[in-house]
Amino acid sequence: MRFLHPFVVAAVSIAAAALASVVGNDYYLRIGFMMCVYYLCAAGMNVLVGYAGQKSLGQAGLFAAGAYGAALLSTSFDLNAWLALAAAAVIAGLCGVLIAWPSLRVRGPYLAMVTLAFGIVVEKLVSEWTDVFGGAEGIYNIKPLSLAGIPFSNLQWVWFGIALAAVIHLLLRNLLCGRFGRAFLSLQADEIAAESVGVSVYRYKILAFVIAAVTCGIAGAMVAQQNQYLNSDFISFQLSIFILLLVLFGGSGSLYGPLIGAVSLTLIDAMLARWPAIQHFAYGGLLLFALYAMPNGVAGLFGGFFARRSADGAEPAVKQPAVTLAAREIDHSRSLLEVASLSKNFGGVRPANDVTFRLQSGHVHALIGPNGAGKSTMINMISGVLTPSSGRIAFLGNEIGGLESHGICRLGVGRTFQNLRLFASLSVLENVLLGQHCRMKNGFWASLFRRHVGKKKRLMHELSPFFLHLVYASWRRCRPEVCRMAFNGVLNLPGRSQPSRNFCCLTSQQLGSTRKKRLSWASSSSTSASWASPS
Q: Within this chain, do residues 403 and 512 fall inside the same structural domain, yes or no?
């Protein structure tokens, strides 16, 4: 079905274009065009809200960046309309970076307030700075898209909107049904755990903002070029709410949610156009209804129905035989981790004080001590969750003290947590695959255009025995996190006793013959701790 999807999208797009050809009424063609425009806005917003979990109320400002960018470039600089459309996407993307860079230092409702402030500033800017943006009078004679010097007709604008929406859908599907989609969903579930498996939280949040900005900017440029006129009335806070409502009503986190929201709400908006005062109440009521009655949107209702139907007819899983993993080539004389004079202060409390030890490759070590001795603090410092107050940490000869968690993970240090941090929105297999995030080499463009399919097939073929052993063995619920950690690299730091015992069995298969070396804590009465090795 994955390979048939592009053909299905092409067939649906051709059918929609044929339907638009039959409709001769310009009013209905305008509604079809706005469906495409709102889908572009909602598709990018879905990446930001539905996948990355970042709330934004400033999409009207990004819409204005694309619209006024295309308008000014084509009128003041006499730029070709097609080049102006491409430049509008770049301008909106840069505005997305400018919003994301300071905004992502805050979270939750504070992030929504910062983006709301951006939208309000842009709205006031285009209204009051009349010398540049024209204010309420607006900008006239904007160049429309054309072929062979002939401007697009209303029907051709609908055709272009359908084609562009289909391309955006396929590109975002390529991006989200893989490495980047898992990374975005991990941000929404648990940022600390996402960092521990190699996901750069800050970078991926900025990427989500840029994707939402680019699609919204393209939509704004299309509106400006199709109307050949633009004024400040196009930009309002109501537009930001409407774009957010498209995603929440259709289904956030679903590839088809933006399409459902764009089609249904554009029709509702057209029906309520003769009663402008009622529109605000209708949008507010639909938003409350979507949040409380349909938290996963219309797409979630249908998705839950089909999931129950498939679960009722599913066959019981067949238990697979255990798989023996190949041994790894390890240089046992090599120093794996060196910690020297490491300390951590929390005000007057010092849970780790002048700790020094050295770990060697090919061994399984245990960190033992009473509550409050500093075990979790030590693992947090090694894995980058906490920054040491003093001392040195070297992994394979590289200084890692003070590095961010995702950078340390890329070097080959994996960990679990004392309280399980599984990503509930991901399947067991996707949780484990996320442990390979920083080992997969496909970047943004390769994922966007699906250039890594061959490499992905080879990887899945090589790792399929490991997956079968994971899915079908009778493991308790903590073990997917252990496998995610083991999937990462060279040094693995279990954060609790039970995963540690399970992990010893796993590493004994991967590393061949290993011998256990127990390391214990010596805790003083002043809550400080040092590392000691028994004879």
A: yes
